[in-house]
Amino acid sequence: MPPHTDAEIAELVKNYSVQKPRSTYVPKQTRDKIYKYFFTEGVLVCEKNPLSTWTGMLGDEKFRAPCLQVMYLLRSFKSRGFVDEKFAWRHFYWRLTDAGLNFLREYLHLDPSVVPNTHKTVQDTAEFEKKPAFGGAERRGRGRGGRGRGRGGFEGERDQYRSEEGRGRGRGRGRGRGARSEDAPAEAPVAEAAAEL
After folding, report:
1. Using CA of residue 128, residue 129, residue 135, residue 140, what is the dihedral sign?
2. In the prediction, which pLDDT does 120 show?
3. Are strands 83-88 and 91-96 parallel, antiparallel or unpaired?
4. Is 136 left (phi over 0), alpha (psi -120 to 50) or beta?
5. How far apart are CA 197 and CA 77, in angstroms?
6. Each residue's pLDDT tens digit, 3-50
7. Of 36, 49, 124, 189, which is most buried, counting CB atoms within 10 Å of its CB?
8. Residue 170 DSSP label
9. Which residues are CB-contacts of 69 (< 8 A; sequence separation ≥ 6)?
10. Cα–Cα distance between 28 and 123 in angstroms, integer?
11. Under a CB-based contact definition with an 8 Å cutoff, are residues 143 and 157 in contact?
12. Cα separation of 101 and 115, whole Å?
């Protein structure tokens, strides 16, 4: 392999980059975006991996921040009693408390009437139940799509199973094993077999 020229070496050195170690210092722009996201949602989830990045979304804008910085910001919040922290399966789950809500309102200069999504009231359940689920009446059951009717189903199948003409196991009525149904003969075949012996 021929030796590199001075110009090639200079170009290699100029383009050579070493990954900078993650810093616990959080720039103001990143801190403001994380605070806005946290106030908007009311909850925040971050993987416990200091080398990875956390992704948040404000409106249509997607932004990234090192997980280490997010963890340190919210560690500070936890020590001041602004968040409730849960940890499971290598993920931190933070929920904003009332003290944290007041702090972020002051920090972000927001009205007291503005609340996070987790504090907003859910739509009325009566309105929710009126809407057809998953495309209306043509979809039924809880099975996997495209594989027949799935297991179960709701449109009178249980009543059909329990009826006289039902084709389910146990002759309908759910009496369990060994119980006689009305259409069974009155004499017991077991008694006849025992008499023959």
Report:
1. positive
2. 82
3. antiparallel
4. left
5. 84
6. 778 887 777 666 665 455 567 888 999 999 999 999 999 999 999 998
7. 36
8. G
9. 22, 23, 24, 25, 26, 30, 34
10. 36
11. no
12. 8
Q: 114: how many CB neighbours lie within 10 A of its CB?
A: 13
Report the candidate in 87, 49, 90 with the shortest Cα–Cα distance to residue 70. 49
Q: How many whole angstroms separate alpha carbon 96 and alpha carbon 105?
A: 12
Amino acid at 179: A
Single-letter amino acid code for the residue at 148: G
- Quote the DSSP letter at residue 63: E
**Measured distance CA(136)–CA(107) in Å, rounded:** 46
**What pLDDT, in 10s, does the model give residues 121-152?**
876 555 656 666 555 555 555 555 555 555 55
Burial of residue 68 (number of CB atoms within 10 Å: 0-12, 13-18, 19+): buried
Residue type, 169: R
Q: What global pTM score does this model have?
A: 0.54
C-beta of residue 84 within 8 angstroms of C-beta of residue 95? yes
Any bridge partners for residue 94, and if so which? 44, 85
Q: Which two structure tokens, joined as six digits, stand for 66?
A: 């090192």
Q: Which positions ≥6 away from 115 have C-beta within 8 Å? A: 101
